[in-house]
């Protein structure tokens, strides 16, 4: 009754390089989290990443642990944990180093050609951390002149 049996493997832990290759070379978008057991932020990210995979069942979510895939990590030059990479048809298109789950979802939505319901459609501004923080403006503006109550 469920024709989606092959699609239901939304969240896949990778332990072999050829399994990894097989997934990322498949047509469409694939996302992989590269983690390590000793990495605190990775441990925190994993359940959130799993939840995200439920939200986007059309995208295979992979998780590879450095402990089990040292050669793969070396080959892919993964040195920061967690690293999230998005692949399309076998080609890496996005890399996020040490992201939070919102960064990941934003990147995913961008690749899927959708905008996040949170950003209300104006996604040119909302995605990307280049939205300038200008300390000089805020520092110089206002704080003085609160004296004289004599």
From TrEMBL:
<feature type="region of interest" description="Disordered">
    <location>
        <begin position="117"/>
        <end position="150"/>
    </location>
</feature>
<dbReference type="InterPro" id="IPR013766">
    <property type="entry name" value="Thioredoxin_domain"/>
</dbReference>
<dbReference type="InterPro" id="IPR050620">
    <property type="entry name" value="Thioredoxin_H-type-like"/>
</dbReference>
<feature type="compositionally biased region" description="Gly residues">
    <location>
        <begin position="140"/>
        <end position="150"/>
    </location>
</feature>
<protein>
    <recommendedName>
        <fullName>Thioredoxin domain-containing protein</fullName>
    </recommendedName>
</protein>
<dbReference type="InterPro" id="IPR036249">
    <property type="entry name" value="Thioredoxin-like_sf"/>
</dbReference>
<feature type="domain" description="Thioredoxin">
    <location>
        <begin position="1"/>
        <end position="114"/>
    </location>
</feature>
<dbReference type="Pfam" id="PF00085">
    <property type="entry name" value="Thioredoxin"/>
</dbReference>
